[in-house]
Amino acid sequence: MADDFLGDAMERYAFAGWPKESRRGAETKRALMVDKTAFPGFTSVRRASIGAPRSYEDFYASDKNGDARVRIRVVNTESFSEAKDALIRRLADCANPNIPRWEQDELPVDIGFASENEGLASIMFVTGGVFVEIASVGSEDVDLRQFVQAMKRQI
Predict the structure, then answer these.
(1) Predicted model pTM
(2) Which residues of 122-141 are buried (b: 16+ CB within 10 A; e: fewer)?
(3) DSSP-derived 3-state class of residue 91
C-alpha cells in the first residue's frame, strides 16, 4: 500500500523530471546543523533525533505567543539522490495531494515545495544532500518567511 502512495506521489510531482545533480556540486555531502539561536522572536524548546544518522527535528516557540510554534526537520543524507528520495517520501505522506512547487531565489535550493495559508505555512526542499522541512505547527499560524531568511545565512 505504501508503494502505491509513493508511486502516485512520484507521478503527481513529476519526480522523473527533477534535477539529476545538485547545483551545490561538491557541497552535496556537507551536513546542515541549524543554529538554534538564529530565529529572532523564537526560542528553541527541543531538538530530537529522528532515526536517520545526523538527522533531527528542532521545535521553536514564539517569545510572544506560545501557541505560535515552528518545527524544522533536517535529514542529512549521503547524496543528492537520497535527499530527493526523502522529499518525495514526505510528499507522499502529506494530506494535501497537490503542494505547489516553490520557485524562488531566496535560498540555494535544488527543488522545493511550499504551501500557504495567510502566509508561508510549510516549506519542503532539497539543497545538496540535505532534505529540510519547515512548518508552522502550533495553533497560531506563523509566516515562515523570517525562518527562510535566517536559513539563508546557514545553508
Answers:
(1) 0.90
(2) bbbbbbbbbbbbbbbebeee
(3) helix
What is the spatial distance between Cα 119 and Cα 8, in angstroms, rounded to a whole number?
Answer: 28
Q: How far apart are CA 144 and CA 112, in angstroms?
A: 14
**What b/e sequence results for 80-101 when a residue is b if at least 16 CB atoms lie within 10 Å of its CB, and e otherwise?**
bebbbbbbbbbbbeeeeeebee
Q: Could you report the per-residue pLDDT of 1-59, keeping only the tens digit for each? A: 457 888 888 999 889 999 998 887 755 667 888 999 999 999 999 999 998 788 999 99
Cα angle vertex 94, ends 8, 57, to 5°? Answer: 130
Please name the residue ranges forming H helices in 49-131: 80-93
What stretches of the chain show up as alpha helix (H) in DSSP? 2-12, 80-93, 145-152
CB 27 within 8 A of CB 108: no
CA distances in angstroms from 32 to 6, 24, 71, 140, listed in the order given: 26, 13, 15, 28
Q: How far is CA 132 from the centre of its chain?
A: 3
